[in-house]
Design brief:
Mean pLDDT: 94
Structural class: alpha/beta
Helix content: 25-40%
Number of domains: 3
Largest sheet: 7 strands, mixed
CATH architecture of the largest domain: 3-Layer(aba) Sandwich
Number of strands: 22
Strand order of the largest sheet: 11-10-12-13-15-14-20
Radius of gyration: 27 Å
CATH superfamily of the largest domain: Pyruvate-ferredoxin oxidoreductase, PFOR, domain III
Distance between the termini: 43 Å
Oligomer: single chain
Number of helices: 19
Amino acid sequence: MKKIEAKNKFVIKFANVNGSGSASANQLFAKGIFRSGITVSPKNIFPSNIQGLPTWFEVRVSEKGYQGRRESVDIMVAMNPQSYNQDVQEINPGGYILYDSSWKRDFGRTDINVIEIPLTKICLKEFADSKQRFLFKNIVYVGALSSLLGIDKNIYEVLIEEQFKGKEKLIEPNVKALGLGFNYAEENLRDRCAIKVEKSNKTDGMILTSGNDASGLGCIYGGATVCTWYPITPSTSLAESFTSYCEELRIEPKSDKNKFAIIQAEDELAAIGMAIGANWNGARGFTATSGPGISLMSEFIGLAYFAEVPLVIFDIQRGGPSTGMPTRTQQSDVLTCAYASHGDTKHVLLMPSTPKECFDFAVEAFDLADRLQTPIIVLSDLDLGMNDWTTPELKWDDSREYDRGKVLSKADLENLDTYGRYLDVDGDGIPYRTYPGTHPNKGAYFTRGTSHDENARYTEDGKVNAKNLSRLLKKYQTASELVPRPEFRQDSKLSSIGVIYFGSTDASMKETLDLLQEEGIVLDAMRLRAFPFNLEVWEFIEDHDLLFIVEQNRDGQMRTLIMAEGGIVPDKLVSILCFDGSPITADFIFNKITSHISGYPAKEALGGE
């Protein structure tokens, strides 16, 4: 029987039942690989119910540091008879399937290696408590994999101790279950698997964390003290993360008083309304939501835009439209967020691609919101937000000061003859503001969501309103020079063809570019990190005759945005679209690009020698 042989390069997939406690065990397995020094990217693929339906957990292990999802599976840990038929079809020839052989099964394939472990029988024999028997079966197979793949068992023992710190009575039975699986494999399954994990140093200076956890911590360092939110997958864990960090870092040591306010609102409208109120009052507040929430919040977003109140919104995108696929990923809120609300509105979008950028952009979002006096939307997605990633350590410069923008003090107001809340003094479209109560009788902090003049007085004079709208457009142009610049990769200046991508798609682009280079195709690549687009984006587009726009939605929303903002002819922009709810893969992008350019006239146009 052929066996796949590999070292630090494989995909393992766990097939479980939702609500069985498997996710924590599978995450434990992934952490053990990371602690062994190898890049790992786990993905939890779960249904939108509480218990009973099939759930999967993929872990890609890559010595080269690839973190994008790969479509094929080398090892399948099949723990759910409901999905056996589907699961077995995903295994590469020569791959492995590990299952609970307490009940024998013929999987109908002669080109895969079947590894049998009687997990249920082992747990029935060793654990008297029925709940422990149910849960520890997952830890037993982690122990068996530790032996089969050559992973130091002590790494998992340490991880268990860390996980259950403060709950010491759970450490011993978990370590016991781990040992049961490890010892069974050592005694019965030696040399059954030719895929191995060998210790490396590829994760030095790296951490394993999710985008939502990194964003929550970024809000702390960004000075946020108010979070108003309504639960919605996949943004809930961001608010929960911020809460846990506040309870650790934002409590006055001497008095035990909270220096934060976290409010779970009755709906998304209330959540964003309170966030706007907090920012109007001078606090740094935010809300976290997903596409359906953005739809509900749109009128309030327009209010913050027109009244010019700072606001930070985290949109963790998911499958749509309507309720859609709430536990699957997409990049389908691009246009909704860029032009949220009715009338002439344009909003600043930040598009992180790693947890480190989720942290950095969270910090940056609050400075930009204050400086521009406008909503800032951080556009993440389920894949980036809820899954763990190998990412550089998060760093903070203690000398950094918050940029609160154009805020007038009492002394400033005393020295002014007149003060116009919406007056463009500096020619950048950004007016000056005050905090409530700054001065007893001068420079009261007026805001208006209706049409208004430079002094915040109500008006129905169309020319005055048009002048105000034009000033807001100038502020938008100012924003294009303040937002994060695009990132260029393989900018060879030789190719007439380029690739544009953004967000979590970055995880597969490095591998895609390597695959193309192996075929003698070197394309220029640009990762968008923010909207509005600055001059560098438009220069990149101008320098190329053909551009692939890679995105995870049906309608090519980023392509539409580029065409709308830059007047780019449609024939120049070719969409590569994935919208099945799974993270886009390098093979998918590679195949789409190569099939399109196979008849391209000159190799020189592709950056060839």
